[in-house]
Amino acid sequence: MMKKSLSLLLVMMIAGVLALTGCGGDDEASGASGDGKLKIVAAHNQTSPENPYQIGMEAFKESAESSDANIEVEVHAGTLGTSESELVEKLKLGAADVVLVSPGFMTKTGIDEIDLFALPYVFENYDHWENVVDGEVGEEMASIINEKSNNDFKLLGYWSAGVRHYYGKKPLESMDDLEGVKYRTQTSGAIADYWEQTGAVPTSVAWGELYQGLQQGVVDASENSYPYFVQENHHKTDNGKFVTETAHDYTTRFLLINGKKFENYSEEQKEAIMKAAEASVQKEREAVNKQEEEYKQQAIDDGAEVNDINRQPFIDLAKPLIEKRAEEIGAQDLLDKINELK
């Protein structure tokens, strides 16, 4: 009788240990911490606390943590890596849960359709961009990202990084002024092809090294939106003080979460995360729009010279390139829908 009781007790103890182990595994898979909270690591690659990325991530954190879903969000501003490849690798491996990346990097993961959102002059203005990403095209692109990444990436929302302009050692009065200019931009693919056709020489310089590159003449010019290049003081260099408003790219950024981990969250947690994503989209876009004007004025106050240019020749040059790229990646239907929204 005693032996049977001991055997029964031993079986019950083993079952209890296995049950606890199983529970611990579920917590680990879902990102739950020891106190039962779901801990989410959210990261972007910009280091300035004033950057719209940081404002968006803080909005995500505030919304998620104020929900009833028992979520804690840890925001990293460049501290998990300043390159997007690092962030995406961490997202895949589970070292980060939410990250922000650009179309240029996403195409390197084999999702070619994303190129459409980065081609010069594919968007007519900010309203056009917003109608595209917040409508049917944006939904289709989200599905493509999820399917082609095998659920490694689930899109939470579309952020903006403003509208990109030329800035360099001389103003542009016409496209001819780009002839022979060493221009910091992508050095391969459709975007590089476009700038080569303008006469510029696409040149690769890491973002963190660009201030020095402009100062030392490694490049004659670059391109970005006001909040980004003014916060980095590029406009204070001799090769960055002339800004020509080419408005060639109404930029898109993708707020991503690991889709496989997201599936393991409770319904309450999923709902809280999606609401937090919506809050972050609104705050980040508001910050970009506000800062576009603020940092343009700051650049002027600091001595930068800003001029307009007739964009039509640039737009006309881009049209066949956009059509060609859409055909190459089998995205003509998506392009047609984008054009219909103009």
UniProtKB/TrEMBL annotation:
Alphabetized Pfam families for the sequence: DctP
MF-aspect GO terms: carbohydrate binding
A single BP term in Gene Ontology: transmembrane transport
Keyword set, alphabetical order: Coiled coil, Receptor, Signal
Signal peptide range: 1-19
Keyword Signal applies: yes
Annotated PROSITE patterns: PROKAR_LIPOPROTEIN (PS51257)
InterPro entries assigned: DctP_fam, TRAP_DctP_sf
Coiled coil feature spans: 274-301
PANTHER family per the UniProt record, alphabetical: DICARBOXYLATE-BINDING PERIPLASMIC PROTEIN, PTHR33376
Protein name: Tripartite ATP-independent transporter solute receptor, DctP family
